Structures are given as C-alpha cells and as structure tokens.
Amino acid sequence: MTRPRRVAVIGSGPSGIYAADALVSQSEVPVSVDVIDRLPVPFGLVRYGVAPDHMSIRSVRDTLNKVLDKPGVRFIGNLEIGSDVSVADLHAYFDAIIFTYGASRDRRLGIPGEDLDGSVAATDFVAWYCGHPDADRETFERLVPTATSAVVVGVGNVAVDVTRVLAKTVGELDHTDMPQHVLDTLGRSQVADIHLLGRRGPAQATFTTKELRELGELLDADVIVRPEDLAFDEASQAAIAQDKAIARNVEVIREWSTRTPTGKPRRVHVHFLARPVELRGDDRVREVVVERTELDGSGGVTGTGQLTAIPADLVVRSVGYRGTAIDSVPFDERGNVIPHADGRVQREGTTVAGEYVAGWIKRGPTGIIGTNKKDATATVASLLADAGALPAAAHPEPAAFDAFLAGRGIEVVPTAGWQSIDRAEQALGQSRGRDRTTIHDRAELLQQARSTG
Ligand SMILES: Cc1cc2nc3c(=O)[nH]c(=O)nc-3n(C[C@H](O)[C@H](O)[C@H](O)COP(=O)(O)OP(=O)(O)OC[C@H]3O[C@@H](n4cnc5c(N)ncnc54)[C@H](O)[C@@H]3O)c2cc1C
Questions:
Q1: Ligand 1, residues 18, 50, 340: which to mutate, most atoms within 8 A of Cβ?
Q2: pLDDT tens-digit map of 373-388
Q3: What is the pTM of this model?
C-alpha cells in the first residue's frame, strides 16, 4: 500500500488526541487521521471534567489543540459513532479505528432512595458546571438555589472538586470559564453545610494531597473533621509508613481535626468510616442515613449497625465513572472496558482486524491526563506494527468520507469550525474580563462553527 493509512480515532479526549499525535509524529508509516467526537468541540473530560478553577490543568488543552493543527490530522465534531454512523460504515473509509471514547457514565450506590429528587450523579453535576451541551440545566437551577445542606458521597478527587465548587464563593470562581448561568446559579446557592462521606478511613482515601489541601484554604468555608474519625488499624499504619502520598494526606486531615471552626458562613464536614445506607425524603431527598463502619484490618470496612442521619436536600453521588458499549464493538460487561491485547481489540480472545483501543475505555477510569499519553502511544505502536496487514478501506480518500457524511445529511464540525467556536469563547470571556467563557448550548456551538470567516 503506497497511500497513507487512514485512521479514525473515536473520541477527542486526551487519549484520542495523544493517539493522533503519536500517529503523525512518526515517519515510518504515512498516516492521515480523523479525530471524531460526538460533541461539536474537542478535549473530552479536559473540557467537561477537570474542575474549571484548576486553570493550569485545564490549560493542557492548549497543548492538545496544537495536535489538531498538525498536517495529516482533521477534527470531525458532532458525529456520534454508533448512532449517526456505524463502526461497519467506518471500515469502508478507514484502514484502522482507535476507540478512545472514554468512560463517562456514573456508577450507582445501590441503596434505597437513590432516585429521589435532589439526588444526582457527580457526572451530571460536573457536566453542568463545566457547560456540557447535554447537561440538565433546569434541574441544577432548581436544586442548587434551594438546597441548604449537601452530602457528597465518595472520597476521590472528583468528590473533592464537587465539594470545593459548592463551597467556594462566586468571587473565587468568577475568573474561570464556567458559563455565566452556572456562576449565577452558584451565586444564589444557600448551601451552608457540605458533608463529604467516605466509607473507609483517612489512610484509604484516594485524593491527591494538593486537591485535599485546597479544602482547608477556602475563603468562606471552615473545614471540620471529627477526631474520632481518625482511626488507623495495622493496615492503615503500614500504608502510611510505605506510601508518602498517603502519609501527606493523613497529615493534612490530622491538622484539620485540630482546628476550631472560625464562624465562616459555610462548613465542609469531612466524614470517614461513614457509609450511606439509605436516602430518605418526600418530594425531595431530606436526609442521608449513614452507618458507622470500622476498619477490618485488610484495607476494607465492615458495618457496625450504628446509624445516624445527616440532613441533606442535595446529594451528589461520586463513586466512580464507567464505560459503556457502542455499536458492535466487543465489550467486557464486568470491567466496563473494551477487551484488548496490547491495544488490539479482542473478540472472544481473537484480534479484531483494524480495531484498537486506548484511554479510559481501555484501562477503566484511572490515572491522570498524562497516563493517557503513554497508553495511547503504546496502542499506536501496535497499530504501526500491524500497518502492512491492516484491512484496506474501500474508499480511503478523506473526500469520500466527507461525501458519505454529507449524503447522510450529517452536519459535522470540522477543524475550522472548532477554531471558530474557540475564538467565540475567548471573545465572550474577554468581554467579561476573563480568558474564556464556555458556550454550553449545542445549537449556539453549531452556529459559531458555521461562521468560520
Ligand atoms: C470530574 C473529573 C475531573 C478530573 N480532573 C482531572 C485533573 O484535575 N487532572 C488530571 O490529570 N485528570 C483529571 N481527570 C481525568 C482525565 O480527565 C482523564 O484521564 C481523561 O480525560 C481520560 O481521557 P479519555 O480520552 O480516555 O476520555 P475522555 O476525556 O472522556 O474523552 C472521550 C471523548 O469521546 C467522546 N465520545 C464518547 N462517545 C462517543 C461516540 N459514540 N462517538 C464519538 N465520540 C464519542 C466524548 O465526547 C469525549 O470527548 C478528571 C476526570 C474527571 C471525570
């Protein structure tokens, strides 16, 4: 084959963009890449997950954006694989497909009352404050200004992000790219108490220390830890001794437990050894029934049967993200990932020719943004090693794929369309004294994409 290999990358989050970069940064095999996303805009959870007040982490998108400008790379937004076009359709236009479509559904708690009004998934809350086009704006505009006590279930970084966004003043968030309606709604919040619930002890929590520390430095919120929650069994002591990150977290939490509240208008209560067993309410959630747990000596916990109730008219469940299947792609229902061998998609133990996987949908929702770079590069190495044996596409010219999409009546957002959205968001932000303001409305995004002039 003398022509460039045509590769479709499904998902423009970090793993998709790092995969595209690895493909066009080598010179052994000529490659032309289309990075496809169901949304009109790229960057996945860097745009719709990473907390807007973590501006330096969000600025990673400047690096990702440069990849979309590289020769041989095209962005094709507003195209959902599995509904707008099938994976079989793609095989007619591409020699290889890399699935990098992430893992953005919520896991459930599996307890009574979970579906009461006022109980929401962190995935949905984060999507709303980041301005995701599919976010349920009406629900959050109703819930946030009418809640006074919130419970956030989970002790990972996402739970900490959610807690911090609820605890910060609008002044602390005003410089971010949050949509104006989100800032306005948070400005009307009545939330005074935010309870962060972890079922295990401080030595088992999975925060990074930098994120954790921020909770102790909020302008308008005291952080409160009960000394009796600082329980450490032998397994905890060993973890603290062996792992510096755990030791640092425990040190921060220990210091908080010695603080006396200073009377700030908001309070962040960090609870350990507390597992929610039921959400109770009427037309809306009113309280979370919590069972005290105790460490079982091996890193786990058992229930003590001792119950208390925490008042809550907003509950944010942050117990993890999970991947889902698309179309005909093989899927491991237990691990919620696409099965693979060195990034090559596997169906019942056999490699599916021309299909590859990287990122969260390959590994599950773990690791930081940079983890996806190594992962995507490894998958691309497998693809390049297979380059001579890829199933050749029937219509490999980029124009043939464009004509196919146009024939289906699908309005995609090309690179120039995304650049137009990018400029519009910067202009909107600058009109309000910020670097950027996220445009959240899909119709408006598409309209901006059309004005590429
Ligand atoms: C709330 C939150 C906060 C985080 N904060 C940090 C942080 O501060 N620092 C850090 O290092 N990491 C952070 N992470 C982790 C980081 O965001 C992930 O490691 C990374 O985004 C995973 O990359 P990915 O490309 O595999 O998936 P994603 O980023 O989810 O990208 C997947 C893309 O695929 C698209 N897609 C999905 N389905 C389809 C389809 N059918 N057709 C076409 N496109 C599709 C999606 O629209 C999306 O753009 C955070 C994660 C979350 C959830």
A1: 50
A2: 999 999 999 999 999 9
A3: 0.96
